[in-house]
Known about the structure:
2 domains, mainly beta, 33% strand, four-stranded antiparallel sheet, six-stranded mixed sheet, Immunoglobulin-like
Amino acid sequence: MIERRTGTVRGIRWSRTVWGAAGVAALLATAGCSAAASDGADGSGSPSATTSSGPTATGSPSPAGASSDPGTTPDTSTPDASTPDPADGAAASPRCLTPDLAGSLEAVEGGASAGHYELAIVLENEASEPCVLQGWPGVSFVGDGDGTQVGAAATLDRSSPHGSVTLAPGASAHANLSVANAQNFDEDCEQTTADGLRVYPPGEKRSLFVRNDELTLLACANPDDELLDVQAFQPES
């Protein structure tokens, strides 16, 4: 309700408008409509062109592959053509398996030292595909004509180089084996002649028998006397 009042004070005529509750409400409604019209581009109440229809910049997810660390830059380089792409199904050569290997023993020239001599355990890849040897073989003497282990297994020379050796079909790798002379041990050694070596290729639980056809291998049946020390496989030179 709006009421206009007039009067005279000391000869001066005055007038004022008295706003009732209804009038105040009407005024506020009018102001609200004006504000809504100014927010739209055409006054129809539709969002203006400056209103974002998607997430704000602070709420947008990072681009795929981008790092959340501002100090790093994502690697967007193209893989080198010489490097197999995993998507192509390319895979590294598999580990050499015992059934695909043939073993032999060779004397190492100049490998003898005081109380020791040196042999090379040679493994050849007889498979039709390349395979990989990496690390140390398990080695022990065997005898009694039935493959029974004689004495202690070889200790591993952890100081020797032990990189991966890829064997093409027909290629070989060797691991040098240092052998202490059993004749230098006392009678508790229980000296005996070995038939050859049992060899476990790296990572394999199946062994192969490497027969000794040319060398005399003297072993100690007493497992407390350790005669063997083996290095990791190396490519044939």
